[in-house]
Amino acid sequence: MDAERRQAARRVSWAAFIGTTIEWYDFFLYGTAAALVFNKQFFPSMDPVAGSIAAFGTMTVGFLARPLGGVVFGHFGDRIGRRNTLVASLLIMGIGTALIGVLPTYDNIGLWAAVLLVLLRVAQGIGLGGELGGAVVLTMEHAPKGRRGLYGAFPMMGTPAGMLCANLVFLGTSSLLSEESFLAWGWRVPFLISLALVAVGMYLRLRIEESPDYEKLVDKREPAKLPVVVVLRDHWRAVLHTIGVIVGNSSLAYIFMVYILNYGKDEAHLSRTFLLTCVIGGAAVWLATAPIWAHLCDRVGMRAVLSWGSVVLLLGALAILPVVNTGNKPLIAVFMLVMGGVLAVTHAPQGTLTAGFFPVAIRYSGTSVAYQLASLLGGGITPLIAASIFASTGTWMSITGYLTVVSAISLAAALAVPRHPRGEEGEPVTEAAAEPAK
């Protein structure tokens, strides 16, 4: 039985990794396009700064939709099972992304182009909102004893992998085409590729087993009728704690992944190709180092890894814009590689920690809602806030100040994580989560 469970755990882990990679590929395509293309194709009547703010604003809409996706998919994930719910979330994301690839621009249909863009971004947000929490829960609940930190990190690794794939495709497309061809039609190619990737993801998702912890739960009693109500009523402290832990990493990650493409080009006069290459290199380091930190969580506990990682994250928040402002390409390239590793430290444990805050009966809902709210308040609004406060103050120091504050919040939250949380065999990792739902 142990050998069968390990085999099932490996199969689920790789399916979760590939599935979340596809979802994040779709989601990050939008962020890269918002930084480089959408201000020209969907908001051409605005000046460059206002167009960038509008483009980042439509990106933020996707983050606003993610908690809704967390509620909807979390409900069905806790009511009818994890696996089938994840299949639906992947399908919604894939269709929404492919439709962006055939969307008429402002020159074709005027303001309706922006309206349709926002609606499809909402579909992306709903799909991703139900994806990550469910993938983490399903993987963690299949994990062998003592390995939940490592196995729970596989879905989290989909973030840098998706970013890596999205930027590689964007870089390849833009490098092969002239500037005019890329802006005219080349930017659509990465979005259309999503259809083939989703087909692969669907095949893998349909071959995995349901969570053993969930099957044990439904054998004993009826699932919660309204799991999200139980989450917000009885486990709101866990939701707030999750937000605190994640907000610093999420904010700095979206400066690193999205905003820096716009800021570096406009303010430091760096080329689009150079900036994309730096982000790709950082994403590769992020992906390569994530399993190391996840394994360390199983050995020494998440509190230690998150606390020390949050200290380094705070230093990264202070340094990122001053380094980019130097315009020194070798320095910037090395720094971006280091930043990828820094982000991995506090990102890899997030899924397992968040899922461990909630008991099995409401774990999909709790993990999805808590994580998506944290992502909204962190990464979702950060590029928009950064563009807005820079436009109003005219100084990069205002952005650095904002990043410093949210990084300090995450450091405080990391220090409040219980020592050596385990969460084996479906048990929650905190005392708060262990309280029975009323």
Describe this structure in words.
The chain is an all-alpha fold. 82% of the residues lie in helices and 0% in strands. It has helices at residues 2-36, 38-41, 48-79, 82-100, 106-109, 111-142, 148-176, 179-186, 188-205, 212-220, 227-234, 236-266, 272-300, 302-325, 329-347, 350-356, 363-380, 382-393, 397-415, 431-434. α12 (236-266) packs antiparallel against α19 and α13 packs parallel to α15. The two termini are 34 Å apart. Mean pLDDT is 84; it is low at 421-438.
Please give a quick description of this structure.
The protein is mostly helical. It contains 20 helices and no strands. The longest helix is centred in the first third of the chain and has 35 residues, at 2-36.
Write the layout of secondary structure elements.
Elements (H helix, E strand, L loop, with lengths): L1 H35 L1 H4 L6 H32 L2 H19 L5 H4 L1 H32 L5 H29 L2 H8 L1 H18 L6 H9 L6 H8 L1 H31 L5 H29 L1 H24 L3 H19 L2 H7 L6 H18 L1 H12 L3 H19 L15 H4 L4
Helix pairs in contact: 1-3, 1-4, 1-6, 1-7, 1-9, 1-12, 3-4, 3-6, 3-17, 3-18, 4-6, 4-9, 6-7, 6-17, 7-13, 7-16, 12-13, 12-14, 12-15, 12-17, 12-18, 12-19, 13-14, 13-15, 14-15, 14-19, 16-17
